[in-house]
Design brief:
It is a single chain. With about 170 residues, the protein is an alpha+beta fold. It has a single domain (about 5-174), classed as HemS/ChuS/ChuX like domains (Heme iron utilization protein-like fold, 3-Layer(aba) Sandwich), CATH 3.40.1570. The chain has 6 helices and 9 strands, in the order αααβαββββββββαα. The chain has helices at about 5-15, 20-25, 30-40, 50-60, 150-160, 170-174, and strands at about 45-50, 65-70, 75-80, 85-90, 90-95, 100-105, 110-115, 125-130, 135-140. The strands form 2 sheets. The protein has a 6-stranded antiparallel sheet, with helices on both faces. A 3-stranded antiparallel sheet has the order 4-5-6, covered by helices on one side. Strand 4 and strand 5 (about 90-95) form a beta hairpin. Helix 2 packs across helix 3 (about 30-40). It starts with a helix and ends with a helix.
Length: about 170
């Protein structure tokens, strides 16, 4: 990303810190993943996409999450646990009995952004899976309770991981 594009991202962020990253990216005519990668380091930590399988395996034990996929302006949301998965035939196959199912092409994930950015006046944290094209493939937001508060165990773990350059080795062994 050029210095001028980076400055445009920071200027737009200063105008409206709560603006959603998709709207910001559209305003700047750039892929959302590229915009997220340009956000200040206090908002985003980047991991290699090679961490995808290990991270998804960990997230399968986190309980309530919100998974979001945007396609051509439509946004699909699923609130519930992320099912466990396994690799087969070139995909990471989500194996839940009910709820979310899918086949994820993890070799297309270039980066995982651990994003901490307010949204609609609320603290918000997400794992953003960014493709080689700079577009977001999907996002997994931390869960919330009935009063819309972040689940404290998830929040604590996420914020600890934000301080790491990669998924900690202890998580890889679980």
């Amino acid at each position: 990303m050029s210095h001028i594009e980076n400055q445009a991202v920071l200027a737009l962020l200063a105008q409206d810190p709560g603006q959603h990253t998709l709207a910001m990216a559209q305003a700047l005519s750039m892929p959302e993943g590229d915009l997220i990668r340009a956000l200040p380091r206090d908002m985003v930590t980047l991991w290699s996409g090679e961490q995808s399988e290990a991270l998804l395996a960990q997230l399968a034990s986190w309980g309530q999450l919100t998974t979001i996929v945007e396609s051509c302006g439509s946004i699909f949301e699923f609130k519930g646990p992320l099912p466990a998965g396994r690799v087969g035939r070139g995909y990471y196959n989500l194996m839940g009995d009910e709820g979310l199912h899918g086949h994820l092409k993890l070799d297309e994930v270039a980066h995982i952004a651990l994003l901490s950015k307010p949204f609609m006046g609320s603290e918000s944290h997400a794992f953003v899976f960014i493709g080689h094209s700079g577009r977001c493939i999907f996002k997994i937001y931390l869960g919330r309770d009935a009063k819309r508060r972040l689940l404290p165990e998830q929040q604590q773990q996420f914020l600890a991981w934000r301080q790491q350059a990669a998924l900690p080795a202890i998580a890889l062994q679980s």
